[in-house]
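Severity: low
Component: inverse-folding endpoint
Summary: output formatting inconsistent between runs
Steps to reproduce: submit the following C-alpha cells with default settings.
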C-alpha cells in the first residue's frame, strides 16, 4: 500500500483504491479543544480577568496537555486570550478603545447582515429567532449567563439567515473577544433595560416579518448603538480603577 495516496497495485497490475481508517490525530484534537474554548468565550462562560490553567482544562476535556496548549496559543494569536507568561493565561480585560472599535465593526456588518436577512430569512428561522427572544426575556432577570448565551444565539441566528459566510466569520471573531465582557455587562446592567418590551430585537423581528431590509438594518444598528451604555459602563470602571 502507498500510505501517501491510499492506493496499491494488485497482482495483475490494476490500480485499486484502499480506504484507510485514520485515527483522530493530535491536530484534530487540538482543533476540537480550540472550538470548545472559543465557543465558551463567545457565550460568556468566562469572565474578563479569569485565569485559564492548561492542566485544569486538559483534565476537564480528558485530553493531554499538548492539544490544550496548542489551542491556547491559537486563541492568544486571535487576541481572544492574553498570555502574560508561559503558564499565565487570562481572559482579556477590554479597554474602552477596543470596545468602541468592535462596536463600530458590528454596527456596519451586523446592520448589513440584518438587512440581507430580511430578504432571505425562512419561516422556520424566523420562528426560531422569536423563540430565542422569548427565552431571553425570561432569562434576563434570573440568569445573566443564560441571557448572554441567548443574546448571542439571537444575533448569530440573524447573521446565519443573511447567508453571508465571510461576514459571519468576521463577526464571530468580534464576539469571541467581547463575549466575556458582554456577559459581565448583563450581570450588572439594570435588568429592566434588557427585559423591556421595547428591546430592539422586537423591532428587528417585526422588520423581518415585513421583509423590510432598511428597517431591519436600522433596528439592528439601533440595538448595537444601545451598546453605548456598555461603553459608558466600562468607562466608569476604568475611571474608578485609575482613581
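Observed output (run 2 of 3):
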Amino acid at each position: 500500500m502507498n500510505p501517501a495516496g491510499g492506493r496499491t497495485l494488485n497482482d495483475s497490475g490494476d490500480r485499486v483504491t484502499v480506504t484507510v481508517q485514520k485515527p483522530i490525530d493530535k491536530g484534530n484534537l487540538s482543533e476540537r479543544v480550540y472550538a470548545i474554548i472559543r465557543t465558551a468565550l463567545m457565550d460568556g462562560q468566562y469572565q474578563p480577568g479569569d485565569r485559564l490553567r492548561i492542566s485544569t482544562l486538559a483534565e476537564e476535556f480528558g485530553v493531554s496537555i499538548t492539544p490544550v496548549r496548542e489551542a491556547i496559543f491559537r486563541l492568544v494569536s486571535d487576541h481572544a486570550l492574553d498570555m502574560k507568561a508561559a503558564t499565565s493565561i487570562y481572559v482579556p480585560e477590554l479597554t474602552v478603545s477596543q470596545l468602541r472599535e468592535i462596536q463600530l465593526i458590528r454596527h456596519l456588518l451586523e446592520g448589513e447582515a440584518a438587512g440581507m436577512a430580511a430578504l432571505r430569512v425562512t419561516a422556520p428561522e424566523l420562528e426560531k429567532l422569536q423563540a430565542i427572544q422569548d427565552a431571553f426575556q425570561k432569562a434576563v432577570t434570573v440568569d445573566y449567563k443564560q441571557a448572554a448565551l441567548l443574546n448571542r444565539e439571537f444575533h448569530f441566528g440573524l447573521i446565519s439567515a443573511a447567508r453571508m459566510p465571510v461576514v459571519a466569520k468576521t463577526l464571530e471573531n468580534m464576539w469571541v473577544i467581547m463575549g466575556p465582557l458582554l456577559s459581565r455587562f448583563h450581570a450588572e446592567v439594570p435588568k429592566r433595560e434588557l427585559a423591556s418590551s421595547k428591546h430592539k430585537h422586537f423591532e428587528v423581528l417585526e422588520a423581518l416579518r415585513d421583509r423590510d431590509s432598511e428597517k431591519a438594518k436600522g433596528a439592528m444598528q439601533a440595538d448595537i448603538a444601545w451598546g453605548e451604555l456598555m461603553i459608558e459602563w466600562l468607562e466608569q470602571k476604568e475611571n474608578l480603577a485609575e482613581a
